[in-house]
Amino acid sequence: MIALLTGIFSSCVEDDLANPQSDRDKFIGAWDVNENCQRISYSVTIEADPTNSAQVILKNFWLIGYQEEPPYAIVAGNNIVIPKQYIANNKDIEVTGSGNYSDEEITWNFTVNDGADLYTCDAFYEKP
């Protein structure tokens, strides 16, 4: 009986270690965006950052375009943080902010400085 229980327990532990759930997994994918700064709806794709297992890349963030250099964000649990950084191909747009994941939605608050104006934005991301 003890040998049987030990075998069952150790196989569960091995499965958990072989297939860990990353905090960032729930953020990855295509998102429909509604935000107050652009006052329109658009799409963002969040991808895993291949250089850092705690980071994601936010393609088309703030509707800058998929061809532009996107910001990265750091994921911890249900929280996501965009540290201060310069984005777009010319590195001329400063962004910073944070968000929270709940029930397959992300609620954001962030700032964008495009060199001419400073925007304080709220956004709502949901899966299409």
What this model shows, in words?
- With 128 residues, the chain is mainly β.
- Helices cover 13% and strands 48% of the residues.
- It contains 1 helix and 8 strands.
- The chain has one helix spanning 2-18; strands at 29-35, 41-48, 55-59, 72-76, 79-87, 93-102, 105-113, 118-126.
- Strands 1-2-3-4-5-6-7-8 form an 8-stranded antiparallel β-barrel.
- Strand 4 and strand 5 form a beta hairpin.
- The longest helix is centred in the N-terminal third of the chain and has 17 residues, at 2-18.
Question: What order do the SSEs take from the amino end to the carboxyl end, as H and E?
Answer: HEEEEEEEE
The neighbouring-strand order within the major sheet is 1-2-3-4-5-6-7-8
The radius of gyration computed from the alpha-carbon positions, rounded to a whole number of angstroms, is 19 Å
Characterize the main sheet: 8 strands, antiparallel, barrel
Structural class: mainly beta
Distance between the termini: 49 Å
Number of helices: 1
Fraction of helical residues: 10-25%
Unreliable runs? 3-19
What is the average per-residue confidence, as pLDDT, rounded to a whole number? 89
The percent range for strand residues is over 45%
Taken from the alpha-carbon principal axes, the silhouette is globular
Question: Count the strands?
Answer: 8
